[in-house]
Each structure stands twice: as C-alpha cells, then as structure tokens.
Specification:
- The protein is an alpha+beta fold.
- The chain has two domains: 210 residues, UDP-n-acetylglucosamine1-carboxyvinyl-transferase, Chain, CATH 3.65.10.10; 206 residues, Enolpyruvate transferase domain (UDP-n-acetylglucosamine1-carboxyvinyl-transferase, Chain, Alpha-beta prism), CATH 3.65.10.
- Helices cover 29% and strands 27% of the residues.
- It has 13 helices and 23 strands.
- Strands 21-22-1-23 form a four-stranded mixed β-sheet. Strands 2-14-16-15 form a four-stranded mixed β-sheet.
- A hairpin with a 2-residue loop joins strand 19 and strand 20.
- Bound molecules: uridine-diphosphate-N-acetylglucosamine.
- The site of uridine-diphosphate-N-acetylglucosamine has 19 residues, from helix 5 and helix 6.
- Uridine-diphosphate-N-acetylglucosamine binds next to helix 5 and helix 6.
C-alpha cells in the first residue's frame, strides 16, 4: 500500500574503499546570493557551474515570481531581470528555502521595497535575522517586522559605516546587495570573510558595482553603473569537497578532488592530515590517501571563516567515529547542530554530548542500520558513516541531502562506493 510520505532512501553497503577522481560540483552557498543579486538591475546573467539542487530550483522559482525569466539547463542558468515587477515573496516560497532572506537586500536595492515573511527557525536552531534588519535600517530602510510579514521601504538608501557585532554571512551579503543602490559609500566592518562573500563581490563587480575588501573584515561598496550582460562561473563547493574527503578518509582509499580551491577547506584538510591521511594540494586539485585507520585529533571548534566551518562539522565527526582515541568537537555557531549524533550512535558510534561539545571515542567498527536524515549536513554525515560501516545502512531522508548535494550517489559510485538512491512513498 502507498504510504503518506515521499522519501529519498539512500541504500549503502559499507566497507568499500574509495578510489578515483571526483569532479566537485559548484557551490550552493555561492550560487544563492548571486541569484538574488541578479535582480539588482535590468540585466541578463549567464551563470555557469550552478549545481542542480532543490534550493537552486526554489531560488529560480522566486526569481520568476518576481518577474524574471530564470531557467536552468544542466549546470547553466540564464536570468533576464528586465521585467522585475513584484517586490514581495510569498510565505510558501520563503518556506522552501531559508536563504530567501537574501532577496531582502536585493529587492530593496531594485524596487525600494521588499515584503517577505520571516524565515523562522530551522533544524539548526533559531537563526535570527536581527543583524540583517539593523544593518538595513542603518542604510535608511524603514522596516516593520511587527506583524507576520517583514515590510521594508527605502525612499533613498544612504551609504554609511556598519559595524557587525558578529561576522554573519547572510547579513554581510544582504548589506552588500542593498548598498549597491545607496548614495555614497558603505563600509562594512566586522564583515564575514567566507569565500562565498568573495564570489558575490566578483559577480557584483561584473555587474558594474564598485566593491572591494571581500576576504578581509572590511568591505567597501560604492555605486553601480548599468551593465547589460553578466557572465559568471560559480566557484566549487568547499563543503561538498570536504564531505568527499571525509568519506575517503573514513573508508580508506585514494581520491582526487578536482576543480576545487584547496585553500577554501584547508582547516578540514588540516584535521584529516592530523588523523593520518596523506594529502597533497595542487592548483585546483586535492589528492587524499587514507589507510582507513585514523587517529583522533584532539579538539576542534567551529568558527567563522577562516576557522573550521560549522557546515563541515557533522561530516568530519562521521569520519572520526572509528579514529583511535578521543576527539572533542565544540560547535560555536549553531545551537542545534548535533542532531546527527543520536543517529550515528545507532550505528555503534560512542559519542557523548556535553552542552555544545561532542566527545567522540573511536570504536573498532560500526554496524549498518536504518537512520533518519535530520538536516542537510547531518544527513551527509550519516552517508559518510554508512560508507564506513559493516553491512547495510539505509538513510531515510525527506529531501535534506538533495538540497545541497548534486547527484551524490552517482559521484560516490564513481569512486567505487556501493550506494544507490531510491525514491518512494513510505
Ligand atoms: C552560516 C555559516 C556559513 C554557512 C551557512 C550555511 C558561519 C559564521 N556562517 O551562514 O558559513 O555557509 O550557515 O549553513 O559559520 N545570527 C544572529 N543574528 C543574525 C544573523 C545571524 O544572531 O541576524 C547568528 C546565528 O544565530 C548564528 C550565527 O550568527 O549563531 C551565524 O549566522 P550567519 O553567518 O548569519 O548564518 P548564515 O548566513 O546562515
């Protein structure tokens, strides 16, 4: 009988070594702000290396809802933003993708108005947007967030200096987008330094904006002169690269990650090296060899970039479940980012949670069983753990993993993993 829920079911037979070349997909977190930025002016954008993912589909639907032509074919996206007529995003569309809050700054810049519903909490925790709203107010926007909808209006945006008390990635992006329409210069101090901010700066420059400083904690945004056509390639996904590296480290084998920027996930590579992997980085490629027997790495703490990324925390944890000794992982960014832990324990992992710190004591073996994906990176961690477990692991997933990983089963099979993705009602 047909059940109620449509599920992805990842079936993994663990214990295979991974070997071969993995071409890493384009970055989801770089693509989404750039898709929002595409509405800043009446221009056409051609974007290359855009991953085919549920979150990208959701962003393209938002663009069409706002009045753009927005199409994806394979990894190419075409956007024509000449006809932006709408400045509001429905609650339903907002719910599909949390990063839709990034459209707030872009809509303010393009239309002088933005209406959207608050993104609300998510699996990782509360995820407030107070820093976004405070910063947009400093630029001159009037914002009413007292009801069920956030209503932003700006007759004139004025460049100013904004000091962020925390280097929020989303807030930095929203300020950069809104500031392109401000009179005078905007200076962001305490800005996020993630590579995705640099990618947004590159795109904005192609769009005719004066922006510099991305990658440092001070970003300066001037005005935008009209450009009709933008051609831009999305950078590779450092978290997907980190995930495949963690899978190879846990399973053993020899894998080359191609098309990557090694410097963008060097903190993850640092810990994998410390755990016993041989790693060689070249221009746009990383080669990793692992005997499959790792050692614990002491202490890891998630930090804003260039520190260890919160997004890679669950997958590195999964790689270290059988590492000899004890590893402590402290999560400082999101309050609820250990949701994968009870599921990993069901595979036989020995993990204790003390508030925001997870203590992992390496076990000799993991045994495959049925798991439920809790969130995007937590789900990816279950796949990494399943690949290094004995027997069969099933990861039941309400679509979390496909939000961020493009053809993940195919890419892992190409490395010799025994994994397949079924979709069915359960
Ligand atoms: C975060 C990650 C980013 C990752 C992305 C996707 C960090 C610093 N940011 O970005 O690397 O790619 O998730 O998973 O690791 N906060 C507030 N008020 C705000 C905005 C944020 O208090 O207005 C707090 C959040 O609750 C959280 C922290 O700041 O504790 C990080 O937020 P932020 O960088 O804004 O999150 P994302 O942009 O989602």
């Amino acid at each position: 009988m047909r059940g109620d829920f449509f599920m992805d079911i990842w079936r993994i037979r663990g214990g295979k070594k991974l070997a071969g070349v993995c071409f890493v997909q384009g970055s989801k977190n770089a693509s989404l702000p750039i898709l929002a930025a595409s509405i800043l002016g009446p221009a056409e954008s051609e974007l290359h290396n855009v991953p085919q993912l549920k979150d990208i589909d959701a962003a393209l639907r938002i663009l069409r809802h706002l009045g753009c032509v927005a199409e994806q074919r394979d990894n190419e996206v075409y956007i024509n933003a000449n006809g932006v007529t709408n400045c509001s995003i429905s609650h339903k569309l907002m719910l599909e993708m949390r990063s839709s809050v990034i459209f707030m700054g872009a809509l303010l810049a393009r239309c002088g108005e933005a209406r959207l519903s608050p993104p609300g909490g998510c699996q990782l925790g509360k995820r407030p947007i107070d820093l976004h709203l405070d910063a947009l107010r400093r630029l001159g926007a009037e914002i009413d967030d007292s009801g069920g909808e956030i209503i932003c209006r700006a007759g004139d945006l004025r460049g100013t200096e904004i000091a962020l008390p925390f280097p929020s990635v989303g807030a930095t992006e929203n300020i950069m987008l809104a500031a392109t329409a401000a009179k005078g210069e905007t200076v962001i101090r305490g800005a996020a330094r993630e590579p995705e901010i640099g990618a947004l700066q590159d795109y904005l420059r192609r769009m005719g904006c004066e922006v510099h400083g991305a990658g440092t904690d001070t970003i300066v945004i001037g005005q935008r002169r009209p450009v009709r056509h933008i051609d831009h390639r999305i950078l590779s996904d450092r978290i997907v690269a980190a995930t495949v590296a963690c899978a190879a480290a846990a399973c053993g084998g020899s894998v080359e990650l191609r098309g990557v920027e090694p410097g963008h996930f060097s903190t993850v590579l640092h810990f994998l090296k410390q755990a016993g992997c041989d790693i060689m980085c070249q221009n746009r490629s990383v080669w990793l060899r692992s005997g499959g027997k790792l050692h614990a790495v002491g202490e890891i703490s998630t930090e804003p970039y260039p520190g260890f990324p919160t997004d890679a925390q669950p997958v590195l944890m999964a790689a270290l479940l059988k590492a000899k000794g004890r590893t402590l992982i402290r999560e400082t960014i999101f309050e609820n980012r250990f949701r994968q832990v009870p599921e990993l324990v069901r595979l036989g992992a020995d993990i204790t949670l003390h508030d925001r710190t997870a203590e992992i004591r390496g076990v000799d073996s993991l045994r495959g069983t049925a798991l439920s994906a809790t969130d995007l990176r937590g789900g990816a961690a279950m796949i990494v753990a399943g690949l290094s477990a004995e027997g069969e692991t099933l990861v039941y997933d309400a679509g979390h993993i496909r939000r961020g990983y493009e053809r993940f089963d195919t890419r892992l099979r190409a490395l010799g993993a025994d994994i397949c993705l079924d979709q069915s009602y359960v």
